[in-house]
Structures are given as C-alpha cells and as structure tokens.
Amino acid sequence: MKTVNDFNFKNKKALIRVDFNVPLDDTLKVTDNTRILAAKATIIKVLEDGGSCVLMSHLGRPKNREEQFSLKHIITTIEQVVGVEVKFVSDCIGEETLNAVENLNSGELLLLENLRYHNEEKAGDVEFAKQLSKLGDIYINDAFGTAHRAHASTSVIAQYFPKNKCFGLLLASEIKNLNKVLTNSEKPVTAIIGGAKVSSKITIIENILDKVDHLIIGGGMAFTFIKAQGGNIGNSLVEEDQQELALTILKKAKEKNVEVHLPLDVIAAADFSNEAETKIEDIFHISEGWMGLDVGPQTNVLFSKVILDSKTILWNGPVGVFELSTFAKGTIYLGNAIAEATKNGTFSLVGGGDSVAAVKKFELSKKVSYVSTGGGAMLEMLEGKVLPGIEAITK
Ligand code: AMP
After folding, report:
1. Kind and range of the H or E element at 392?
2. What are the tens digits of pLDDT across the range 282-309?
3. Mean residue pLDDT across the chain
4. Quick one: pLDDT at residue 356?
5. Does the pLDDT value for residue 376 go beyond 90?
6. CA–CA separation, 251 vs 239, rounded Å?
7. 320 catalytic, yes or no?
C-alpha cells in the first residue's frame, strides 16, 4: 500500500483529493471542521517536504453552481486548521486553474472550486479526469468519505499517474484500521450491529458472519428477529418482509459457530417521545400498543459481558433511540463497556453515521481505538466490496 510516506514531495505539486464536504450554517460558516483536521497530516507532509498542494473536493450536491456550495466559504477554516494561507481559484479545470497551478510555489496551498460544479465529476468522465490530472505531479487520494464512488477525481483520474499515485495518511489509516477488524483480527471478535432497519445492514451482517465470533444485534432491527421467532413486539419497529431473512441469518450464524446475542428486555414506551410513559418488558412479550425504544437492564449486562470478553470490537449502529435522552441509556451503557474493554487492551472500531454521532455525543471518541470518518465508504468495506477509490490506487 503506497502512501505519501513513500514519496518525497520536494519541488513537486501534489494533487490531493480531500473530503472537505463539511457542514455549513445559514451564514455559510463551517460548523464542524473534523474532515479538514483529518486531512491536515497529509497536507503538512507535502509542505514539509518542500512541495505544494492543490486541493480538490466536492461540497454538497450543487445542481447549477449555486453560491452556497462554493468551497470559498471554507478557506478561513482551512487556514486556521493548517496554519498556511490558502489560495483559491474559482474553477477546478480550465486556463485560469492551470495558470494558478503553474504559479504555485513550494510551501503553498491552492484550493480548487467545487468539483461537482461540473456534472462530469460524478459521471466519472474520462476527459474531465484527464484535465484534472494536469494539475499536479503526484496524485494523492485522502478522501475516505468518497472512496466508494467511481467519480472522476476519486478513481478515474488515477490512470494518469501510473507510478505517481498514493494514499493520503487518513485513507491509509482508515484501511489499516478496518483491516484490523476484517482480516487477521485478534479473537474473540464481536460485531455490534444496531440501528433502525435490518434491510440496510443485511449485506454487512452476511459478510461479517465469516469474520466474527459474536454478533450483537440491537436497536430497531432486533424486533424483526424477535417477531420472526414468534415474539410479541407490540408496536415496535418491524420489517415484515425481512422476517424470513432474519431467520436465515440466525441459521447461517449457527452453522458458522457465530453466537448471536439479541436483547433480552427493552424499555417499552407508550409513544415515541422523550416524555412517554415507560416500563421494562421482556422483548418476547411487549404489551399491545407499546414499543421497545431502548434495550433494558438485563440486556445491558449481557451485552457488556460479551464486549468485555472480546479482543476485537466493531460497532455500527445505536441500540436504542439515543437521540431522545429517555432511550439513550442502552447506547451509553454499551459505549462505556466498549471504552472499558479498550482500556483493557481490546481493539475497538466505531463507524457509520449514527454510531459516530452517538460516540461524539457521549464523549467516547477518545476512549475507543478508532472512529472511522467515512459513512457509506466504511459500510461498503464492511459489506466486503472493493472500493473504486482504493482500487484505483492499488492496481
Ligand atoms: P441506522 O441509520 O440504520 O444506523 O439507524 C439509526 C437510527 O435507529 C437512529 O436514529 C435510532 O434512533 C434508530 N433506532 C435505534 N433503536 C430503535 C428502536 N428501538 N426503535 C426505533 N428506532 C430505533
């Protein structure tokens, strides 16, 4: 796996695909600079070698060059994070852009305008990719967030740098850490899969059955498994059409010697609100009209025991409606158990939109081994897919 550490960038122009798709508020100020911070190490490596950086990214989903999607809004934040003045060019291809790159000196940073102002980016257009490729000597992909897309700047472009292409430090560390879970992982390996729906996690579950010793299933998706086994789940979330599949998964898990742990009890609520009346119920016997919105105390004990006995942990998806404080306790309990296991030497990786949000909300980010930055990309890796952005560098 070639990374920026295999190159010396002295007097070279590094063309870096970063993921600066950051959230902006109504006044177009950056509200979370995590993604910019994540790319800092790669940028600094190039600059310290004596090279220059041409940064390219997308921002949002523009249709017609709407002003709100201009990357110029993030210039100040990049300058604050990296500590270097940012030059900006109002397109990502064309003469003006070529000139700006031409005039770039060692130690300087140039930010290109939003790649998605050109439809050719998402279409993976070869001619567009070729034009982009003229903007640097060495191509670096450090955008894990878009590594699962075969776009012009994330994958198609790599063919123009047969020898001079590599991973940035963020992407390299994402791959390394995910591989710690997916290959050669220290046993016992436990995957915790939560969240709302079975249907959105099914491919992941099927793929990881070959890699784990324990599978903890929590959150809304657990009820489909319980109902499929004859349980009364009241008004809890269910996907009627996924029940067969749920039974198949349980059967396959058994064949592969994977221990599946479903919740034993739930915090049942009379309605979906923070102020709802609640009671603890056996998950197989939830009262008519009530719904399970969090795991109960017996489940907390069961799940933490499995977690504390594990040497490798993957966590994707909350085990309850953690956005509402009344139903957040199970997810907090689980997060704390993972933190404790990590303290005892277990490798823990958290990834996928909502579990990352939960880890941040409950201040557990520093207490787990690794928090993945890529939502969709990380899920596709867990599904066993080869990501175009990764393949383009390695092949
Ligand atoms: P996902 O995006 O599939 O990981 O699902 C995350 C969402 O699942 C969060 O918004 C949670 O509120 C929701 N969720 C977790 N547990 C439950 C539950 N028992 N009932 C309904 N929704 C849930």
Report:
1. helix 388-394
2. 999 999 999 999 999 999 999 999 999 9
3. 96
4. 86
5. no
6. 19
7. no
What's the average model confidence in pLDDT over 332-353? 95
Ligand 1 atom nearest 324 alpha carbon: 12
What is the atom index within ligand 1 of the atom nearest the CA of 318? 15
Residues in the chain: 395
Atom 10 (ligand 1) nearest CA: 321
Return d(Cα 184, Cα 263) in angstroms, integer.
29
Using the atom order of ligand 1, give the atom closest to the CA of residue 218. Answer: 16
**How far, in Å, CA of 193 to CA of 216, rounded?**
6
List, chain by chain if needed, residues with CB within 6 Å of any ligand 1 atom. Answer: 195-197, 200, 219-220, 237, 292-293, 317-318, 320-321, 323, 353-354
CA 104/CA 102 separation, integer angstroms: 6
Percent of the chain with pLDDT over 70: 100
Rounded to 10 degrees, the C-alpha dihedral 232/234/235/238 comes to -10
Is residue 163 among the annotated active site residues?
A: no
* pLDDT for residue 357 is more than 80: yes
pLDDT in tens, 148-188: 999 999 999 999 999 999 999 999 999 999 999 998 899 99
- CA 6 to centroid of ligand 1, rounded, Å: 42
Residue 57 C-alpha from the chain's centroid: 17
Alpha carbon of 258 to ligand 1 centroid (Å): 24
Q: Which of 221, 321, 332, 334 has the most ligand 1 atoms within 8 A of CB, as the residue to mutate? A: 321
Whether residue 74 is predicted with pLDDT greater than 80 in this model: the reply is yes
User: Catalytic site residue 35?
Assistant: yes
Of the candidates 76, 384, 17, the residue with the CA atom closest to the CA atom of residue 207 = 384
